[in-house]
Write a structure and sequence with these properties.
Length: 308
Amino acid sequence: MKLNIKTVCFLCMSLSAIIKINAQQNPEYTQYMYNTMTINPGYAGSVGTLEATLLHRSQWVGIDGAPTTQSLTIHSPLANERVGLGLSVVNDKLGPSSESNIDGNFSYILNLAREKKLAFGLKAGIRKLDVDWTKGRFNDPSDALLNSNISNEIKPSVGAGLYYYTNKWYLGLSVPNFIKGNYYDDVQESIDIDRLHYYLITGYVFDLSEGLKFKPAFLGKLVSGAPLYYNLSLNFLIQEKLTLGASYQFDDSASALAGFQISNSFYIGYAYDYTVTKLNKYNDGSHEIIVRFQLQKKSSQIKSPRFY
């Protein structure tokens, strides 16, 4: 059998940190504040116009079999603006595994006092899992597990969320999937049954001056039997064009974020994550790029894109 030296280092570091780090199940994003519908269906239609977002993430560059993720979300309110519909597609690769998720998203929006809104969201779709044990690790013919590939295993997915928002701040609670299924455990290097993921997301936009906005944002995730995950980011929007920020994922990474509003419709953003654990000796960080499109209305046109 053959072992790649980078793979050996990665496995050793993963095992030594097993108490602190839970095996990655759902994909994680640094620019989560612009990719909300992947975790909360209540976001569908909340922008008030058609919005499409495309994201690519390469995690722990330099380590064989490290996670790579792509996501595409499209959503819009209907004509009465009380119902939002959306589609989210996520492709996540990790070691020998590849998982794809396709979900339809539905939200019903209640208009409350003083321009406050509360959306009830539902999402439903399918998950497809493939695991090829010959990829990303050594092959041991005597190990039955490593010769039991998974091909096109399809399971349904059903999730729900609440999303409360105004023009200045938002708060969301969600469970993206209530149906348990198989997933690839990158720490134990085995197939396991996933657990429910509970998400909390919030943010607030402060107008510091006419040309400067400040937005702290927070994402928390609770998974049974795993440490609490949370990410805090601080972002500045300068002259409605340039976004600069930083974030910290507890006990994992520190990140720098930058984005530019090319026009009222197009935004492009980039994030770089620096690993703060001992794993940083074996990777060159993580890179994430996002492109967002918002259709401008002919009447009551959006003067400036919303800062979340």
